[in-house]
From TrEMBL:
<dbReference type="InterPro" id="IPR011608">
    <property type="entry name" value="PRD"/>
</dbReference>
<protein>
    <submittedName>
        <fullName>PRD domain-containing protein</fullName>
    </submittedName>
</protein>
<dbReference type="Pfam" id="PF00874">
    <property type="entry name" value="PRD"/>
</dbReference>
<feature type="domain" description="PRD">
    <location>
        <begin position="15"/>
        <end position="121"/>
    </location>
</feature>
<dbReference type="InterPro" id="IPR036634">
    <property type="entry name" value="PRD_sf"/>
</dbReference>
Amino acid sequence: MDIESHLKMLQVRKLIDAQIVEIVFNTQAHLARHWHVDVNTIQVKTLLIHLANALGRIKRQHCASPLHKDFQIKIQRAVCFPAVSAMHQEILNLIPFPIPDNEQTYFLANYYSLLLDQPDILKKRHTYCLTRSQSRHTI
């Protein structure tokens, strides 16, 4: 099932609303544009559906238990954690309501998994940042 159909199904079941659908598509566009993510992979579709479900749960005043502490530590110690954290903060900025810390642990796990699935993201991001930095110096 494609992402749009899945989101519509969640909306029909009243698990998410139109605002969440918009956030999910804004997140997808942000990942593609700013992080050069291949958003057509199963990993990204899973990430986006997890995001939609989490946002729906939060709006219904429910919250998941935090990610197991051992997994949190593994993610925080990973070489790519600065990128995971940056991606996380950028996506949080697209969400117009507060996200409980417990739910954020799963967001971080999803971004970590994404970077493991698409390791070239870090290379592309690094190259993009260097190119932008160099162009600023030549202006």
